């Protein structure tokens, strides 16, 4: 009975992302804290922060957040980027890299090294900028990262003995 009540108390946390019915469990692409969160712009071309930044020293290994196919790996405006297409029309993006370890068309597994983190955008501390898109829409990646944490918490709660 106590286990059931505990599970019910955590249902709101365990519900997972609700972004337009999109579902994708992502692993954190680089070890490090989130240093800047997603900021939804009021219009498609307005200022905002269309992803999250992870603080990481230059050269830290960056991994694919989910299984997919590399759709872009190269330079844009003097900075290195990788984009990976996933099922359901989702795309993850990895920006401001110091090295790219994959090629366009390459299939990658979740957790597979794809790049090395770089200096970040001009005027920022070294970081990885991580983005998520559904078609042309930018999504907040954090709820999708938390989905795997929620699942693991659920397993711990369900399997943990209650005295």
Describe this structure in words.
- The longest helix is centred in the last third of the chain and has 18 residues, at about 140-160.
- The protein starts with a helix and ends with a helix.
- It is built from three helices and ten strands; from the N terminus they run ααββββββββββα.
- Strands 1, 2, 3, 4, 5, 6, 7, 8, 9 and 10 form a ten-stranded antiparallel beta sheet that branches.
- It is about 20% helix and about 35% strand.
- Strand 9 (about 125-135) and strand 10 form a beta hairpin.
- The model is unreliable at about 5-20 (pLDDT under 50).
- With about 160 residues, it is of the alpha+beta class.
- It has a domain at about 25-40 and about 50-145: Distorted Sandwich (Glucose Permease (Domain IIA)).
- The radius of gyration is 17 Å and the shape is globular.
Strand content: 25-35%
CATH superfamily of the domain at 26-40 and 49-145: Glucose Permease (Domain IIA)
Give the CATH class of the domain at 26-40 and 49-145. Answer: Mainly Beta
CA-to-CA gap between the ends? 12 Å
Sheet with most strands? 10 strands, antiparallel
| Gyration radius, in Å | 17 Å
Whole-number mean pLDDT: 81
CATH architecture of the domain at 26-40 and 49-145: Distorted Sandwich
H-E order: HHEEEEEEEEEEH
Total beta-strand segments: 10
Summarize this entry quickly:
The chain has 163 residues and is α+β, with helices and mostly antiparallel strands. It is built from three helices and ten strands. The longest helix has 18 residues, at 142-159.
